[in-house]
Amino acid sequence: MTHRLWNLDCVAAYEEGSKDNVTVKVFKDWSPLLDGTSVIMALSESKLWNSFGISIADAAIHNFFGVLHAGKSFMEKHLSIFLHLHNEHISCVKPENVPQRVLPKLVKDAVAAALRQLKTQLPGDFSSVHQAKVGNCLPDLATSLATIVMDSSNQHFQEECSKILGVQDVNNVETAILQRLSSISLAPDHGGRMLPCKRQPKKMDEMDV
Question: Is position 203 within any domain?
């Protein structure tokens, strides 16, 4: 259960049983965003959240706050994100003829940047929908590949596979394969390679004509 404290001075969120670890951010000289409809609509687009495996649970304006509730269920835990939109009184010269879509875009880009950082820190918790589907298939795939190695009558082949995977015992091949596959699934920038290797230049007779 998540408890929320909203007022004009601070916003705090903490898990039940961990009140001693509450982090409160105090905003000095600020006011709620009275008209956050356009921002809420921009953040309600599912495309923004799909790549992080998050679905929109609710979108509404509450108590003069622009509050968006996005959630994701995991195997044994639940994630809730509450965005509190407000104006800060910062002295600046407002440019003329600023399109109304600028603010929603800025907020949307800021949220996406924050989620990308969280995904880097907690890749398993922010896997995309596609990554989650792939992840569900990895144990069976690892078992199939390990069976090919372990059932082989070629001892040299088994030893080479174990060496490449960095295991001493052939019985640990399945675990090593699953770890490699999982690292690829959670790290798209890996380039889709199960084992670290350098790209070799093509020979002249192998190049496409």
Answer: no
